[in-house]
Amino acid sequence: MVSLPALAQSSGKKPNLSGMWQALNSANWELEAHAAEAGPTALGALAAVAPGPSVVVGGEIPYLPAALAKRKTNREQRWTADPEAKCFMPGVPRATYLPYPFQIVQGTDKTMISYEFADTVRLVHMKDPGPAPADSWMGWSVGHWEGDTLVVDVTAQNGDTWLDRSGNYHSDALHVVERYTLRSPDVLMYEATIEDPKVFSKAWTVRMPLYRRLDDGAQLMEFKCIPFTEHFLYDKVGR
154-163 burial by CB neighbour count: b if 16+ within 10 A, else e? Predict the structure, then answer.
């Protein structure tokens, strides 16, 4: 088990966002509005798609016409092609609305965000360190405050993550601007504005509340999922 500090150094007079948070929605299944749907037959209702409203501001993702074919292919292959199934780090913004908690440890020069899924960690640099040394799964995060809102500019993500389980995707040109605003002590409003000129016709935004985990003894647990993917990834290779 991994237990991180419940409190961190305060960032001046700014709100302290430190704590464990979790999205309580079906965005990881699909960002746009969707009905319930069957999963793989062998799993019955265990892998059924949970219904949910759109978390996209305006309702729909503005794909370029040429990009829709790839989303269709992704969706048709999602039960085997989704990077989540392979235990790849989820990227931003998907890491925020996976069905697992994450923890913010807020500091002055850097803020750490630790995600339970795949033991993923990223640092938000509160003083601009310059350009990213290379593209990566979780990208390069540079933050600043706009009033009481933490704004995080995320660049240099590779093009290998998806935005949800339904096949919504991006390219290596992805640029995400996140906004974290404390609405109350236990509710954090989250927005992520997404730009990718290779895939989308314009910038678009997802918006959702995040809820503080208040259970007794709440902590991030180890979820090293790589061993669970070995048969999934390699059985066909050996046959």
Answer: bbbbbebbbb
Instruction: In whole angstroms, give the CA distance from residue 32 to residue 60.
Output: 6
pLDDT digits (tens, 9 = 90+) for 192-225: 999 999 999 999 999 999 999 999 988 999 998 9
| Residue 118 falls in which region: left (phi positive, over 0), alpha (psi -120 to 50) or beta | left
Q: Tell which residue, 199, 228, 219, 238, has the closest CA to residue 84.
A: 228
Closest Cα to residue 16, out of 149, 106, 141?
A: 106
Say if CB 23 and CB 215 are below 8 A apart: no
- Give the distance from CA 10 to its chain's centroid: 25
pLDDT averaged over every residue in the chain? 92
CA–CA separation, 161 vs 165, rounded Å?
10
Strand partners, 206: 56, 192
> What is the identity of the amino acid at 210?
L
Long-range own/partner contacts, residues 37-43 (CB < 8 A, 24 or more apart): 39/79, 40/79
**Which of helix, strand or coil describes residue 176?**
strand
DSSP assignment letter at 21: E
Beta-bridged to residue 153, according to DSSP, are 142, 177
Distance CA 5, CA 16 (A): 13
Question: Do 121 and 112 touch, CB atoms closer than 8 A?
Answer: yes
What's the one-letter identity of residue 59? Answer: G
Residue 91, phi-psi category: left (phi > 0), alpha (psi -120 to 50), beta (remainder): left
> pLDDT tens for residues 71-130?
999 999 999 999 999 999 999 999 999 999 999 999 999 999 999 999 999 999 999 899
